[in-house]
Structure formats: C-alpha cells, structure tokens
Amino acid sequence: MININGLKIDVPIIQGGMAIKCSMAKLAAAVANEGGIGVIAGTALTIKELTDEIREARRLITNKTGALGVNIMFAATNFAELAQACIKEKIDVIICGAGFSRDIFSMVKGTDTKLFPIVSSLKLAKISQKLGADAIVVEGGNAGGHLGTDKDSWDIMEEITKNIDIPVFGAGGVITPEDAERMLSLGTVGVQMGSRFVASHECDVSDEFKQMYINCKEGDVVEVMSSVGLPANAIISPFAKKVLDDDTPAPKSCNNCLKHCNRKFCVNHRLVDAHEGNYETGLFFAGRDAWKINDILSVKEIFDKFRPVFNK
To answer: Which helix (H) or strand (E) holds 82?
Structure first.
C-alpha cells in the first residue's frame, strides 16, 4: 500500500483516463475495487454526464482500498468547469494532461481532492512539485493518446524520479508485469496503464475496438498529428492513413470543444467512431506496445497478474 498525502492505495496502478467515453464508470469502479485508481475520462462530457458517471462509479465501488479519479484534457474548452464539478463531487484524484494548467492547483487547494498532472519533462515535473502537486504521472511518447514528448518513457523517467521529491507514476509502454517491474526500477512508485485496460471485459468500447488491440502487430501503431495540435499514437487504419497523408475531410459541424483545433478533422468524432467499432472512420488510439496484448481479460485477472510486482 502507498500513501499519497492521506490517499491510501492498495495497488499503485492508475488506469489511464481514455477519452472519448472509453474509460467510464464500470471500468473505473472495477479498477478501484481491485485496489487501484480507477479513472473516468471526463473530456468531452457535459457536467451532468460527468457527475452521473462519478455517482454511478461510486455506487459500484464496494472495496475502499482503491480510489476514484477523473482525467480531463487541459485542451478541452470546458476544462475548468469539469474540474470544478469533480471537486464538488469530492473526487479522490484529478489527473490532467494535453497541456499544463497552473489554475488547477489553486482550484484543488484546501480540498480533499488530490492532483496528479501528466508531464513529460523534468521542467514541468519541477513546476508541478513547486505548485503543490500531490504526485505526477510521467508519460513518454510510447503511450497511447496525445503525447507531450517524442522520447520513450524509459528514456525520461529516471532523470525525473531522481530530481523531484513527490511520487511519480510511470506511463507509456506498461503492458506486462515485466514492464511494470522495469518502470519501478526507474524510481517510480507505480504505473499508469491505458492500453491493457482497453482489452478488458469491463471497458465500454465495442468488441471490434478490442479486437484491433488483439490483432495489432509490432509496428502497427503509428504517430499521427491530432487536430488538438499534439501528436498521438494510433493503430494503423483507413482513417489513420488519411491523417498521415493529410487527406482528412473537414468536420461538417463543430461545437468548439477544444481551446485550439486545426479543424482538419474532429478527433472527438473519430474516437467515438473507433469505440463504436467503425473501422473505416475510427481513429484507434493505442500505446506503441499494444501488440503485446493477446487476450481480453477481466480487470481482476489483470490485477492478479500485476499485483505480485508491487508485493515484492
């Protein structure tokens, strides 16, 4: 068990907050019930949708050895409103990436909500510590989703863990227990995993999406430029090829969900299409090492595989 400023976690595994609507109440609650930090993807949800998901997850959580978090992209237009909703609901942890917010530190100050910024450099790690982060998630360019660096997690981790004093969770490339063990050897207190939890029974995406992970081969994950303005890793697909060729259709409608968007395509729509199993129009975000996944497991089975690493 680890203790982060009073937040006690039995197993230091954070389930990645994968938007849009990939990590929701059912998955987050299952992870929390195994003693980890289950995370709801708050990005692109309305305040009501997010509040409903938090309350549903709480209803499903029966084991108090884990925690419930929400991941919100700073790039989202309603980032501040979503964060305030999390604080109002007394969420255990807010995890935020895809940009860096200084305001969020003052928002959580004096509350019981912990703050874990996602960073990819020693500079931002030090700033996070100075501003009062309870812990940080250090994410490399081998992670799934939007990326803050082109360096792999293995290449940036030790420089950061050796030069800050707050707990570090390592993200990017953690698919197997051996990967988790390697991450701990670099000075982290735990890991964040996204891709491994996509291929779980409790994840709310379609079976077609999960099969993309199972069928993925080494080299099938490519780096594309998201309309957010950040690079991202995605499994090769017809739409991913269009992004690579800069041949994507402009969105027919826009609700200004992002602070900055190049409007070459709507990343939210393409992620939803992927989660619904639309091979032709979906964008299938995945960590670069998703090819290591060859089975769909329950969250309990995943934790049973990883738990011994943290009990040594």
So the answer is: helix 79-88
